[in-house]
Design goal:
single chain; about 325 residues; alpha/beta; TIM Barrel; 8-stranded parallel beta sheet; two-stranded antiparallel sheet; 12 strands; oxidoreductase; NADP-dependent oxidoreductase domain-containing protein; Aldo/ket_reductase_CS; NAD(P)_OxRdtase_dom_sf; NADP_OxRdtase_dom
């Protein structure tokens, strides 16, 4: 059983979830195995990843009731401003659900063609707040936000984000940002918790892993969850999917936690967002390159849509919410 952490609004969220980024392809059997056999309940995705439709089929086909799952997806920058509600509704339709457990703004950057960026950010967050206030979503959050981004958002937010999802692993974890979020009552979620496997063979990490009779990957995941940071590793390997959840039967010593945290002194960031604005207009899921495996045809399945909306009518946001 994967334990939960409690968000600032008292909604419970699993400490370990399944990441579904487009790297490595999408394997339907692996997703079902993670839910049915490994106890994953948090499923983290995004419109940008291009797999919401496939995940919707998995959610429908798995043996776990929808109310026991925690579905999180993200708003891509091109949909900010007036496009928030339509993007939300489309994601719900693809995921075959009538609500989300968390809806996030994928990143603070906006397309260059938006003239008044601060006004658009304010409008976007207000619509996120409306989705939450009208119970379309159980929590709202942001991703890749820095301290400066969060301070700007706080200038106009009525509700602060319930979570900020950031790159978080021993080699890059922005302790100042984590401390700021803690002080503001914003939960931290971590992506790339294994640094995409780039440093898992390091001598010091392997020595710590041997000490606890765990794998290097398990040590990294334990380092995250021991800081109450919910984390979303991705794997398509059945054995590793199970292994990634087996991190709650031991505790890292304070000394080992500090050693692991010290790895970040070289600032080994994995995800480069420096040129993200140049990629905003690329199609969602473009990195998949057609690598989607084992997904059954859902043409005969009923599409679920938001029960508080009218999907067959061209209603404006103000009417729907």
């Amino acid at each position: 059983m994967i334990p939960n952490t409690r968000l600032p609004n008292n909604v419970e969220m699993p400490l370990i979830g399944l990441g579904t980024t487009h790297s490595g392809g999408y394997y339907h059997d692996a997703v079902l195995h993670s839910i049915n056999k490994c106890g994953y309940r948090l499923i983290d995705t995004a419109k940008r990843y291009g797999v919401e439709k496939q995940l919707g089929i998995a959610v429908t086909n798995c043996s776990i009731p929808r109310e026991d799952l925690f579905l999180c997806t993200k708003l891509w920058p091109v949909d900010c401003g007036d496009g928030v509600f339509d993007a939300f509704r489309t994601s719900c339709e693809k995921l075959k659900t009538d609500y989300l457990d968390m809806y996030m703004i994928h990143m603070p950057q906006l397309p260059d063609w938006i003239v008044d960026q601060k006004e658009t950010k304010e409008k976007t967050w207000r619509q996120m707040e409306l989705l939450y206030e009208d119970e379309h979503v159980r929590s709202i959050g942001v991703s890749n936000y820095s301290i400066d981004d969060l301070e700007e958002l706080s200038e106009f937010a009525s509700i602060l984000p319930h979570a900020n999802q950031i790159e978080f692993h021993p080699w890059f974890h922005q302790s100042d940002l984590k401390s700021y979020c803690d002080e503001m009552g914003i939960s931290v979620m971590g992506y790339c918790p294994l640094a995409k496997g780039k440093y898992l063979e390091g001598e010091v990490l392997c020595r710590i892993a041997d000490k606890y009779q765990k794998s290097p990957a398990q040590i990294c995941l334990r380092w995250s969850v021991q800081q109450n940071v919910a984390t979303v590793p991705k794997s398509t390997d059945f054995k590793r999917l199970k292994e990634n959840t087996d991190v709650f039967d031991f505790e890292l010593s304070e000394q080992d936690m500090n050693i692991l945290s010290s790895f970040s002194s070289k600032n080994q960031k994995i995800v480069d967002l420096s040129n993200i604005c140049q990629k905003m207009s690329l199609p969602d899921g473009y990195k998949l390159n057609g690598r989607v495996f084992g997904v059954p045809d859902d043409s005969e399945q009923m599409q679920k849509t938001c029960s508080k909306c009218a999907p067959n009518q061209n209603l404006s946001l103000s009417v729907c919410i």
